[in-house]
Amino acid sequence: MNGASGRRDDAVRDERDLVRTLRTAAVQMEHRDLADGVARRRRSRRTRRRVRVALAAAAVVAVVAGTAAIVSRPDGHRRAEPATITLPGWDGIRSAEELWPRAVVRVPAYDSEGWRTQVATSMSATEVLLLAKAGKERRLEVYDAARGTIRILGSIPEPQNLRYVAVGTRYIAWYTGPLSGGPVDFWIMPRAGGAARRVGQVAADVDSFGIPDDTLVWSVRGGGGVYRMPVTGGTPQRLPGTDGLRLTSWPWAAGTGSPLVQNRIVNLETGESTEVSLPDGVRTMQCHPEWCAGARGQRGIVQRVDGSEPKTLPQELQPRGLLGDRYAIFGVLDEPMKRGVPLSIVYDFETGVMAKLGERPFAAGDGAVGNGYSTSPSTTPFWWTGSRVQDAKEYIVLNLAAVPR
């Protein structure tokens, strides 16, 4: 009897807590933009409290507009209806340079020898890996933001059909081969620079790869599994239980219900698998270990992997993919000739903060955002001015490895 009474008291307290939370949300929406309010509420919660409040929410009749209501789905499961994030206007969103000044660097589009550079990925909080080319030659270089200089790492042998680059703790790796169908050749170079070495050829249609420690890992297009091979070469080994998985960023892989929708997240080191709670009508969904971004109908959405904390984004923002380990990037839809419109928006899942990347020039079509040469979620989104990247004199790079935590 005492146990039942205690549970009733807990439920009453949880219901009161929820009502107070909703009232607080209403006040926050009146005095600050919704993204900041969501971030503050999220930081104040603990996981257990969030679960208990979700259970108590069924007893609440009135729900303040803009917060998440709990509804029953036809399959009997309970899911929060998404809150709607509103834009404060483009002038109300801070730029990446304002939010994270140490993480935004300007990288020359040409090195001191006149080689054309292209942003590949991040090597550290102060280093950006570059792919440089002159005629048919290719080499790897690194831009040192602390010194403002470019250093040559080494030449890329047989650069024809160079596809993607990955950075590990000891090596930089890349592979060459056709866009699809295979086979591909894997190569490595010491992270500090030096001679490149061919690891071996793999008769596979590689779609994603990485280099943790002294091992190459990759997944095969079409859900053909995940494989590994030491940098010393040898016979590739298929990791057990990886049918239907695509490597995202080691040790994480994703299962797909369709080519555009990820339905589970797997840790390949521990074997832990987590189902993604997909909302009805989802068209696309990509997930980090904790967070997902995608589209439902014509609107972008973000949520946790378990479906909690869902939010619907303004119709001006369209999902373009994931960045780093906790970000997503969204394209911007607005009037073609309107000034002040950002090229893209970066969304920080953990804080709810949005950051503008660049600004649309007056001439329609000028300026764009690139992601680099990594198959993992990019850590170096960059942008430039001008109608073609070939005309750029410099790149403005957001190095997510340098964003304060």
Q: Could you list some keywords that capture this structure?
A:
405 residues, mainly beta, Methylamine Dehydrogenase, Chain H, 2 domains, five-stranded mixed β-sheet, four-stranded antiparallel β-sheet, 4 helices, 40% strand, disordered N terminus
Strand order of the largest sheet: 3-24-23-22-21
Overall pLDDT, averaged? Answer: 82
CATH class of the largest domain: Mainly Beta
**Total helical segments:** 4
Please indicate the percent range of residues in DSSP E strands (runs of 2 or more): 35-45%
What CATH architecture of the largest domain would you give?
A: 7 Propeller
Relative helix content: 10-25%
Q: Describe the largest sheet.
A: 5 strands, mixed
Low-confidence stretches: 1-77
Shape: globular
Instruction: Please provide the count of β strands.
Output: 31
Describe this structure in words.
The chain is mainly β and 405 residues long. It has two domains: 2-80, no CATH class; 91-402, Methylamine Dehydrogenase, Chain H (7 Propeller), CATH 2.130.10.120. The protein contains four helices and 31 strands. It has a five-stranded mixed sheet with strand order 3-24-23-22-21, with no helix packed on it. Strand 9 and strand 10 (171-176) form a beta hairpin. It starts with a helix and ends in a 7-residue tail after the last strand.
